[in-house]
Amino acid sequence: MSTPPTPPSDPSDPGRYSGQGAGGVPGQDISGFNPLEPPHGIDPTPAAAVAPPVDPRLLVRQEGFRGYLDEFKRKVRGGELGSLPVVIGLVIIWLIFSLQNSQYFTAANAEFIAYYMVGLGMLAVGLVFVLLLGEIDLSVGSVSGLAAAIYAVLSVEHHWNAWLAVIITLLTGAAIGALQGTIFAKIGVPAFVVTLAGFLGWQGFMLWLLGSTGTINLENKGLNALFSGNSYFLGGQIIGAYLLAIIAVVGFAAGIFTQQRRRKAAGVPYRPTVELLARTAVLAIGAFLVAYVLNQASGVPNNVVIFLALLVICDFVLRRTTYGRKIFAVGGNIEASRRAGISVPMVRISVYAISGTFAALGGLAIAATTNAAGQAGADPNNLMMAIAAAVIGGTSLFGGRGRVWSALLGILVIESINAGLFMLGLTLDIQYMITGAVLLAAVVVDSLSRRTQKSSGRA
After folding, report:
1. Distance spanning both ends of the chain, measured CA to CA
2. Which parts form a coiled-coil structure per UniProt (predicted)?
3. φ, ψ (nearest 5 deg) of residue 215
4. Which listed residue, 190, 227, 308, 316, has the most CB atoms within 10 A of its CB?
5. Contact status, residue 154 vs residue 167, Cβ threshold 8 Å
6. Is the model's pLDDT at 448 over the cut of 90?
7. Helix ranges (DSSP H) in 302-404
8. Where in the chain do CATH 1.10.3470 domains reside?
9. 85-231+301-447 under CATH 1.10.3470, yes or no
10. Quick count: other Cβ atoms within 10 Å of Cβ 398?
11. Cβ-based neighbours of 77, under 8 Å, separated by 6 or more
């Protein structure tokens, strides 16, 4: 067995580094080697000191308008369309109907749309929470009709205090939703089956409560007084609409600047002040324009004020709280949520309870438009329109993506179509066909968007 050569002790031996002496390794020319210098072709910078690649999305805002344009193009190519399709569709709808009838762009029509969108909008808000889980609630239409019947029986026939009747009604809606959510989450019955059974069962219960007449006229008190068609914020005074606009702008500005300050303190990317000021200015223009238009009629209906306030609260819950992040997590990946320690059954039960509560609120709002609780409150079309509103507004049927503002945008599209068709004297069959086409287009856009995101690695 041969022994390896021993390096010479004499540093002057040329074979020490040349590979030609006693200590050299044949076939390797290492002349000029300096142990204090890195080998040729190797970056001497330590790996830890090498700056990691920076996501260009964090730098686009430093490039001015060009950066924003590039970011917009990147989002569109990646399938991140957001509310863009529905906003474009809404503008097209307004232009088409305004060309067909000059009275479409009037204050009276704007007030008509704003008032009648609230009832179905409430149902759509509750459905947004459910759709974020990738599930469905087919019972909201029947629950809304049942809620109106319960309120009418308690406040009119049994002469309960109107506000106490409202509380009992809302608690009943929440209990119904929680019951259905428990059957789904704990027993494992598919949500489609559970809520379909609820759709039939709660409608039957509503008919039993209403009795042989099928209708109970409501008194102008309690929540019904706030939701009625002649109830306006601050009595319809001009200052009322502008005060709401000021509150909206100030609240929005305070929220985004507070977020900027917190992100800056945490050392994470934040939006520049110029962008925040621009966003605030755009909102201010829109808010005061809407206030001006509504003031040309009778002011801002109280039910619209309540609806917008609930949207703000729900948006805060979904985007700024741990509970909201859990909803998105469960809707995005159930198994990953379980491994992260999230109680999936409790999230599901609570979401269906929220859906039931908003169904009850929507039922009260719908009943207030006719000042009566009747069989029309559980019209199956209410369910279809509420689902359509949530999906058209941008909430994904596949779960994990959407915002409560989707309910506002979607119901605004539907009511704008309804108002336009009504002014043109077209029948319900045309209305249903157009609404169905818009709904199909929204689902197709959502599917294509998700496919694009998957292909670009962002889904």
Report:
1. 62
2. none
3. -150, 140
4. 227
5. no
6. no
7. 302-320, 322-332, 334-339, 344-370, 380-392
8. 85-231+301-447
9. yes
10. 16
11. 452, 456
| Residue 225 structure tokens | 């007084």
171: left (phi over 0), alpha (psi -120 to 50) or beta: alpha
The structure's pTM equals 0.80
Which of 64-78, 339-353, 411-425 is predicted with the least confidence, judged by mean pLDDT? 64-78
Residue 374: DSSP 8-state: E
Kindly indicate the confidence band of residue 25, based on its pLDDT and cuts at 50, 70 and 90.
very low
Amino acid at 308: L
Residue 385 is encoded by which pair of tokens? 């329109």
Amino acid at 248: A
89: tokens are 């569709």
Kindly give, in sequence order, each residue whose CB lies less than 8 Å from that of residue 369, ignoring residues fewer than 6 positions away: 115, 116, 119, 227, 229
216 torsion bin: left (phi>0), alpha (psi -120 to 50), beta (else) = beta
* pLDDT at res. 313: 94
Q: From the CB of residue 457, how many other CB atoms can be counted at a distance below 10 Å?
A: 7
